[in-house]
Amino acid sequence: MAEPTNTPMPPSTPVPASTPRSASPVRPIPSLTPNATTATIPFWTLPDASKKKRQTVLHIGDPIKYNPDTYLEFSQAFDIIRPTVAERERTEFIKALKERRWGDFSAIFRPFWGTGGEMGRWDAELISLLPNSVKVFASAGAGFDWADTELLAEKGIIYCNSGLAAAEAVADFAIAMIISTFRHLPWCMGAATLSLFASGSPDASAKDANARKAFQTCHAQATAASHNPRGHVLGLVGFGNIGQQIAAKMGNAAFGMKIAYFDVVRKSPAVERELGAVFYDTLSALMAASDCVVLCTPASPDGNPLITAETLASLRPGTRFVNIARGSLVDEDALADAVESGLVSAAALDVHADEPRVHPRLVKLASLEVENPGRVMLTCHNAGGTVETHIGFEELSMRNILAVLGGKDAITPVNLHLLRPQVVRSLT
Questions:
Q1: Which of 405, 392, 412 is nearest to 170 (CA)?
Q2: Are the beta carbons of 30 and 12 closer than 8 angstroms?
Q3: How far apart are CA 3 and CA 227, in angstroms?
Q4: What angle do CA 366, 256, 183 make, to 5 degrees?
Q5: Each residue of 135-150: pLDDT tens digit?
C-alpha cells in the first residue's frame, strides 16, 4: 500500500528521563520523544579521510525543499545522482540497475513520500539488482511495509525510516480522534452542516426541515452518548515514540486518562513510571481492560491483520477504537460488525486497508443515514501530514546517510538487528 502524499521534527512533548539521548556532535532540534523540552540528534559529518574518495548517493524523488543548509553539506560530502521521473518507473529503473547506469552508489535517499516511489515495492526483484556498494537506504515516512527490510539486511543494507519526525504530528492527530470517539464529533459536525445542502435545491423546504430536526436531535441526544475521557483507560497497542507521545499527552492533568499498553517488548520501569503506564502481556488482556484502544504499531511482517473478529471479541461492549497505524492491521469487515452490534461504540480511522478506497460499510457508519449516526470518524491518512513533519523527514534522512557513510551509527535504523554481525562490524 503506497504512502499518501503528506506526512519532521515534532515540537516538544515531555519524554521520560530514561529515554536514551544522542551523543555529540549535535545540533539542537525540537523534541522527538515524549518528555523533553529539547532533544538532539547526532549530525555526523564525514571525516577528512573519507572525503578523499567521494561516495555516491542515489536521490529518488523531488529535490529537497526545506533544509538547504543541510543539503549543501550533504552535496559537498557526496556525489548525488537524481534519476528522472521516467527513469524511476519500474521497468526503466530495473533496466538502469541492470546496466549499472548510476555506478556503484553507496546510499539511497528518498526525502518525500509524494515522489520517489514510482518503481513500486522494493522486493527481491529490485533489491537483488542493487550494487554491493550500497550501505544505507534512508527514506521519509514511518511505515516501511513497501520495502522488504529483511532482504535489504541480507544484502548488508541498513534501512532507516523517519518515524521520529512524524511522532508529534501523529500523536496530536490521535488525540483528536480519541476525543472524537468520546464526544461523537462526526455526528455533531454532520448534523450542524446539513443545512448547507438545503438552500437552492428543488425541495429546499423539506431539506431545511430535516436539517433543523437533525440539529435538534443531535443537541438533545448526543449528550447521553458522550463522556469525558478523564478516568477512562486508554489502551495503546504499541508503545514506541508515537505511543509514548500519546500517553504523555492523554495521561496528563489536562485529560487524566489511565494509560495501559501492550508491546512485544516491555519498556523499562522508569518509562512506565514516568508515563504512569501499565503493561499487559497479551493483546486480548489489554483490549479487555480498555475503554478506548489505539493502534500505533508497525504493520505486521506477514501482512495479516492484528485486529480481527477474534481479538475484537475481547472488548467490553461500548469500547472505542482508533487506528493511526496501518490499515492492513484491521479486518475492516470485523470492525464494521463490531460497530453495528455496539461492541464498539465509536471508531476513528485515519488509515485504511485499500487506500485510497475507504470501506463502504464504515463510510455508511460515518454518515447520518443510520439509526445511530456518525459513529465512525474517517480521515485520509492525514495524521503525519504537517509541514514540520516534511521538514524532519528530509533532515533525518540526510542525517542517517551522513552517519552511516561516515562510519557512525544510524540514527533510526529499522533492520539493524537483522544484519549479519560481520556486516555490522564492517559499517563501524
A1: 392
A2: yes
A3: 34
A4: 20
A5: 999 999 887 888 999 9
Q: Is 332 helix (H, G, I), strand (E, B) or coil?
A: helix
Assigned CATH for 13-165+387-427: 3.40.50.720
E runs forming strands in 1-126? 13-14, 26-29, 35-36, 39-42, 55-59, 78-81, 107-110
What band does 427 get if pLDDT is binned at 50, 70 and 90?
low
Would you state the cell numbers that stand for residue 174, as one nine-digit string? 490521535
DSSP-derived pairing of the beta strands 13-14 and 35-36: antiparallel
State how far the Cα of 391 lies from the Cα of 395, in Å rounded to an integer.
Answer: 6
Nearest to 33 by CA among 248, 303, 192, 291: 248
For 163, left (φ over 0), alpha (ψ -120 to 50), or beta? alpha
Task: Give mean pLDDT, residues 52-57.
Answer: 86
User: How far does Cα 224 stand from its chain's mean position?
Assistant: 33
CB atoms inside a 10 Å sphere around CB 85: 12
Whether 167-378 and 13-165+387-427 are alike in CATH topology: the answer is yes
Candidates 155, 119, 114; CA nearest to 137 is: 155
Cα 132 from Cα 269, distance rounded (Å): 42
What pLDDT shows up at residue 31? 40
Contact 129, 94 (CB under 8 A): yes
Residue 38 has pLDDT above 50, yes or no: no
129 contacts 58 by C-beta, under 8 angstroms: no
Residue 262's SS3 state is strand
Going by C-alpha positions, the residue among 267, 310, 264 that lies closest to residue 287 is 310
Domain ranges within the chain, ordered by starting residue: 13-165+387-427, 167-378
DSSP letter assigned to residue 200 = T
Mean pLDDT of 55-75: 96
CATH number of 167-378: 3.40.50.720
- One-letter amino acid at 370 equals V
Answer for the pair 334, 307: CB distance below 8 angstroms, yes or no.
yes
Q: Supply the pLDDT for residue 426.
A: 54
Degrees to nearest 5, angle at CA 385 with 185 and 246: 60
Only one residue has cell 522494493, namely 122
Instruction: Round to whole Å and give the CA distance between 204 and 418.
Output: 64
Closest CA to 58 of 141, 133, 149, 155: 133
Number of H helices and number of E strands within the chain? 16, 16
pLDDT at 203: 67
Q: Which residue has the higher pLDDT, 295 or 163?
A: 295
